[in-house]
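@channel anyone free to eyeball this complex?
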Amino acid sequence: DAEINGSDFDLASIYVSDAQYNRNIYFDTSPQAVRLYLRYNHWLPQVLLYVFILVDLSLALFEEPAVFALPTWATMLVELLCLIVFTIRLIHYAKVIPRDKFWKDPKNICIIVILGLTMVDMIIYGALKASNCRAVRWSRVLRPLLLVNVTEGRQLRRAFRSIRNALPQIFYVFLLFMFSLLIFSLMALKLLGKRGLKTIDGAPYFTNYLEIVFDLYVLVTTANSPDVMMPAYNASTGFAIFFILYILINTYIFMSVFLAVVYNNYKKYLKEEVRQLVRAKRHKMVRAFAVLQEQREEGGEPVVSQANWNQLVRLVQPDLSNAHRELLWSVSDDTNQGCIGKVAFVQLADLLNIEVITLKSRPHPLQGVCPAFYLSAPSRLLCQLVQHRAFVIVYDLIILVNAVFIGLDEENPLISNSEWVFLALYLLEILLKLYVFEPRAFFSRHSFWNWFDTIIVVAALIATIINSAMKSSGDYTSRQILDIVFILRVLRLIRVVDSIKRFRTIINTLIRIGPAILTFGQLIIVVYYIFAMVGMEIFKGKVKFYEADSSDPAKAYCGNPSLKGTPFAQLNYCKNNFNDVVSSFVLLVELTVVNQCSGFTLVTHVSARIYFVLFHIVVPPFITIIVTIRPQLHIFVAFVLEAFFVEYSVEKSDLQTSLEKKIEELELAVAQEKLEDNLVNAMETIDSDQGTGQSANSKPGLMFKIASKRYRTVDALLQRMFEADLDPEDFAETDDPAAPTSGNFSNPAFSSA
Amino acid sequence: DAEINGSDFDLASIYVSDAQYNRNIYFDTSPQAVRLYLRYNHWLPQVLLYVFILVDLSLALFEEPAVFALPTWATMLVELLCLIVFTIRLIHYAKVIPRDKFWKDPKNICIIVILGLTMVDMIIYGALKASNCRAVRWSRVLRPLLLVNVTEGRQLRRAFRSIRNALPQIFYVFLLFMFSLLIFSLMALKLLGKRGLKTIDGAPYFTNYLEIVFDLYVLVTTANSPDVMMPAYNASTGFAIFFILYILINTYIFMSVFLAVVYNNYKKYLKEEVRQLVRAKRHKMVRAFAVLQEQREEGGEPVVSQANWNQLVRLVQPDLSNAHRELLWSVSDDTNQGCIGKVAFVQLADLLNIEVITLKSRPHPLQGVCPAFYLSAPSRLLCQLVQHRAFVIVYDLIILVNAVFIGLDEENPLISNSEWVFLALYLLEILLKLYVFEPRAFFSRHSFWNWFDTIIVVAALIATIINSAMKSSGDYTSRQILDIVFILRVLRLIRVVDSIKRFRTIINTLIRIGPAILTFGQLIIVVYYIFAMVGMEIFKGKVKFYEADSSDPAKAYCGNPSLKGTPFAQLNYCKNNFNDVVSSFVLLVELTVVNQCSGFTLVTHVSARIYFVLFHIVVPPFITIIVTIRPQLHIFVAFVLEAFFVEYSVEKSDLQTSLEKKIEELELAVAQEKLEDNLVNAMETIDSDQGTGQSANSKPGLMFKIASKRYRTVDALLQRMFEADLDPEDFAETDDPAAPTSGNFSNPAFSSA
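replying in thread with the prediction:
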């Protein structure tokens, strides 16, 4: 026991926390490097790093073409500061891991290259600006890549990698699609080119091969349907067959196959990544075990004592309650031996990732202050009333009536005054609930709807009061305040969803797969940012937007004579431009929905189409092709689909089941209904600081509930998704294939580790 | 043995063939009913039935509003004839199955109701027409339902059933989507309604709640993006957030969840259907076994002798070659006992469904006629040249050069004459191949590309000759002939695909899942037909199309003053109308791609939107909602995806593997490369009429190849799709759960069956 000192615990806790969060950093194991590594993983530098990346990315708002113009020296100074922060972070990282590992990692090389290029670009740009030459800040395109590489964006990098690996397979389908496109275009040229047909603008129809290829490509995206077909269809009904066949083959059948191949490959590589992840996790836990292990008896298997285990868990997760830790120990040490073997120890990382809600039963504070009143018959009756099903139904009806009132004209005084009534009713509901339920339980971390209700109602109350105060003090009404009031009122209606069980299931599932969806959100931001930077350089100032009250004659053609009389100007699309980063982002979202580019090829050159086709091909699934029905979102859809199935199904992982069994065994389970009503009426208890496996039994006031389907990390969700597909060997020992995977004390070969 | 007579064989063969094709008809087992049933399943009445359904459906071409007008009495006479045919078929069916079964089947009731309603409608319509009143042939909507119910459209009915069963689950997600739509609309009304904004037409923007709901619904289909957002976006950039949020939540996240739930449920019910199918198949085979079984030894297991088995298979599939039948027997009777038990017998239905290509090795006919010449050194060299890889590459290059020439202007005499050169080259290729390969092998049933090549080249030759003949005899050139020539020329280029292995894999996969896709094609036809009939009644004649040379001023507004100055008329969409069934179908395809209805609500009433929204919701996945990215095709995409995975993967079913093993054991396997080159150079042999398991061994000239991934029936593909998911019990005995599922002679409990 004496051999295990403080730095050993530091080392073991790093291994465990790396396993828990799936960090794959090969740090030095010298005590000095371990301390540095602990500092590297501290939340403060990580948050700071994210802040500086955000600052770096948002510089685009202030740089030419700017939303809020700042002098060049100011933005460049801020960027220099960001670069220094990134460099410091990188140096810190270099000190943590062995030198050869550092230079072998392409991630680090990538960061160094980006930092170098950005510096070079800034110097050139500054010099050119100083000599009044035209200069382009091309290194801005590289900024989002820092988001991918500097941060611990494992999910992001993994998504990139999976997409890259799936590329070759996908490329063949893409080629076949291109072949089909070219063949159809050739046929269209031969059939329609010589008929002297005209498009709606009077231009010759289908006479230029490249134009045809582009038009038919756009038809796959359905953006120019049915316009592209009308001249031919008007000439002869028979040509409709050509276009219907084209849409059937290229838009529907082909793109389905495309989706199939993309999805299949993407999933395959993601599965391989997850398999490696599980192996790496196990490996780290085995190392942690090797640090803490001790020999209980001569020739016996090495074990970790409960005291050491407790100290380790306290280091890894200081915020874990003692009772929760004891529960985890009793799951690991199933047979009450006071120590656990390697197999049980290795589970720790996964056990820590299962979110267990600890409910402390406290009496209502009013009961403490004035028990005679709170426990009186009328008070008890009130409590029963509020907890009754009818209470929920009454309030659902009130919300529905409120919805009708919101829809009516709010300038009618009756309607606008009724708002006060509804606000009072909602406030009353919250106060009643606070009277009945213990406030800390009511506002616990997992009571999403309680928080939602209270914030919305209180905010609406404040906004409404400000609004009427402004109204009564002079006739001035702030449009902004009024907008906020309206939004809050409408948001309140969402509460109805929570009352219908099926709806709640769907919404909860969505909330749970949120983090996974956010990963793809980041991916989209990276691609959008790059395209916005490039688009701004190419198209900035080509299309101008004039305010509604402007009388400039150029307003009719967006300030660009090339757009005179074009649909782009006629439909008033002038604000769809690349003149600043916000407009660019809005425009890119529009392009994601329907890819239209006619306006921009007119103001620049036909070849500008390349930009739009590229965007159409590249967006979210990144380089993953996909020219489909709504191509850019296929991988996204596929992922949501997969994650949704896993979440929607009732199955639980083995580990969760065993944890739940233990909770039930210890009679600490919270009945489902009880938890949902936040009904905690038992007496308060004090956490004991130390205890054996049995001690938890003596705490009837403390209850556990597994938030069974909530995952701390996206990795855990991914692992669940592929659990059925993974080989059992991935979970087993890699260094000892004969070892059984369940039960403690059964691995005699491990003393050598 | 003597107990088994002819009618027993008839009965057993019906059971087997019902199992093979998954027919689920509970026919009487009396010899008379069996004979009627055999006639019912004959191909001639079945084909006739399909012809009459086709005639019935195509009547829409000749009825008001007609493409080719026929007098009412003519179409009604034809329809009457069709009804009589359907009635006869139904009576035949009623004679085959027990009376109580007939009246319990909703399918039959459905047919009787449709026939009755159609008769009533025809009488009313005739009477009204005779008295010159306005009459509507409403029963035309019912016609496609006959396609579903009269024919043995099992796949179609199964798809309908699966969709119907999945409805309740899907309904909840749809409700939640509607709730979200209503909430967003309310917010839009409150935020934008009072700002006095105008749309591009000068109409007030977002002031009417129902209009907003409809506009935002259309935004989900992305059809009116970005127009619907522009007025708000032009007023303030901040409103872009509202629309982006809306698109993100409703178009992307929500619809992904939608797809997930629809797909999950659809798959679940389809799986259940397939499970029942497998059970029913097994049950039928057990009955067939019970008819033919005999007791070899006292107390032993009942078996079927080889002679009886042979006679049965000959009855079930008369076109099966003797060698093929012997192969199947040797797979069933693995241990050469001369008889097989129940377990081996039950496999027969699946064995018959595995397509085995029998290659008979024949010498080239020229070798027979003139062996000295054909086997001479130059002739052999030529054969080697043609079979060389370079030959394929040379011809691929020729095709590419040809593609460039096609793209060039064909009025240039050099170009138009070059066509003769290319034609000659292609003809030469075919002749050379015919010289090298045995013609019957070259034109075998499975040589898709050989057939394709020959037909295209010969047709192009004929068309080109006709074309130049017409050209030289006077300057008249038929546009039709020229079009055909062009199409054939371009189609020839597709051949390149066959040379690249990866492309071939993809194309072959597509061809293989074709039948399954066609099932969904039928489903779409049913829905389109119903919508076309309704649409024609509502919208016929409201929008008129004028030929290009017409000088009628009404041409500018499609003959309907309500359309004056609308985008519909400006974009020349007049031919998109419901004036006849062909136009309706083309328009419905356009609506499937992009659902636009502005023109039609103008010429009738705003409530006409209901028709278009309904179409958007209902199409292919039928009632299956789905208001998605490209909603109508989701189930289709999902199905293609699933089928594609199964086909694309290399795994084979167990039965196929055992059949292949047997073929290899008997040394009759064709090497993969050999088959692909159609290289059959061995000597011809004569089929022996009878033989033992070993007799196949003495036929070195006969080779087998499993067309391993081709399925005779869609059911077989479905069974494959869910093979991994089905319980082993589904394949096992239902009446004897303890029976092993593999190996012969192992089921002692079966003598009681």
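from a first look: Chain B is about 65% helix and 5% strand.
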